[in-house]
Amino acid sequence: MSIPESLKAIGRAGAGVNNIPVAELTKRGIPVFNTPGANANAVCELVIAGMLLASRNICQAWNYVRQLPDDNNLDQAIEQNKKQFAGFELMGKTLGIVGLGSVGVKVANAAISLGMKVIGYDPTITVNRAWELSSVVKQALSIDDLLMESDFVSFHVPLNDATRNMINHSRLQLMRAGVVLLNFARDGIIEHSALLNALNENKVSFYVSDFPSTDLKDHPRVINLPHLGASTKEAEENCAVMIAKQIRHFLEYGAIINSVNFPTVEVQPFQSGKRLAVVNANIPNMVAQISSKLAAANLNILGLVNKSLDEIAYNLIDVNSEISTQVLQEIAGIAGVIQLRVLEPLGLES
Predict the structure, then answer these.
(1) 173, HSE (Cβ side, Cα atoms, 13 Å)
(2) Rounded to whole angstroms, how far apart are CA atoms 339 and 320?
(3) Angle at 258 (CA atoms; ends 31, 237), nearest 5 degrees
(4) How far apart, in whole angstroms, are the C-alpha atoms of residue 154 and residue 132?
(5) What is the pLDDT along the chain (350 residues), one digit of tens a residue?
(6) Of 14, 119, 163, 244, which sits most exposed with the smallest number of CB within 10 A?
(7) Cα–Cα dist 74/77, whole Å
(8) Are 226 and 211 a contacting pair, CB within 8 Å?
(9) Are 320 and 226 in contact (CB under 8 A)?
């Protein structure tokens, strides 16, 4: 994919960025934004629906009624055969949640309200999410501990090297017989061949997923949905508004909120002078070199923010007056500088 020189930022109206070349964009000094939490309620509701679909055999019962003949024996046939669709209630069952981000926390709290026991695992849970989480949610010390205690397991983690095929044959064997697995996170978290064997052996009673696959979609106890997690009017609007605000604040003020490859930088609009945004390699002495170029041009620094993440650093520098093209060229010529731009308010209404 060719990335034009004019590109300033990438915005993903959703959480997943696995279809975006993040590493390449980072090297170019281009932030990638997403919208975690904007569609959390929509996904949460679908997870709860998935548990109900599985526990009450709703899909199978619906298909059974649809294929009944249109005759006077309908009521009799229903009464004779409805026992085969008897299910179980959610109340009192244990839900294990792997990943307690914006969606996982909402699912946990909703399950608590339904009378379920909830156990969660997330070693990287943020302070904000911890505050939102119900205090009765039990903490699992490991994924394996969670799997051994759960009647339902719902996954809410990104797909990366650490989570790819995290649920494999050995971990499936740790689970309770008849467990229900729910995957509304990403395809690839559960190893398909191992899951198919577990379904055929009745180790797993149902698999509910938002990511259909050819090797699983026709199994009688697999409920596949066509990636409907964020497909609500409300979620789509939330994501669009959220990403538009984030990109506008970046372009106007240099703020970085919800970027997957840049540090978080919360700043206020600048009142006077000019603001310079510089992306550089995260190496020593960069700020000093940039400052010396500004000082040599008799530009006074009114404010400076310097943040770093992994291999890059991001600087916002407010100066007292216009920055000449020559000074910008000198800063751009410093070894390690990747991107720089002078910020201008867009003049749009909030």
Answers:
(1) 4
(2) 21
(3) 110
(4) 18
(5) 688 889 999 999 988 788 899 999 999 999 999 998 899 999 999 999 999 999 999 999 999 998 888 887 888 888 888 999 999 999 999 999 999 999 999 999 999 999 999 999 999 999 999 999 999 999 999 999 999 999 999 999 988 899 999 999 999 999 999 999 999 999 999 999 999 999 999 999 999 999 999 999 999 999 999 999 999 999 999 999 999 999 999 999 999 999 999 999 999 888 778 999 999 999 999 999 999 999 999 999 999 999 999 999 999 999 999 999 999 999 999 999 999 999 976 655 54
(6) 244
(7) 5
(8) no
(9) no
Dump strand ranges (E) for 172-331: 179-183, 204-209, 222-224, 274-281, 301-309, 312-319
- Record the tokens describing residue 295, joined without a space: 């000082």
Q: Are 253 and 269 in contact (CB under 8 A)?
A: yes
How far is Cα 55 from Cα 265, in angstroms, rounded to an integer? Answer: 45
Which residues fall within 8 angstroms of residue 223, CB to CB, at 6 or more apart? Answer: 50, 53, 54, 59, 206, 207, 208, 209
Please give the structure tokens belonging to residue 215: 């090797």
Closest alpha carbon to 346 in 258, 265, 244, 259: 244
- The token duo for 44 is 């949460």
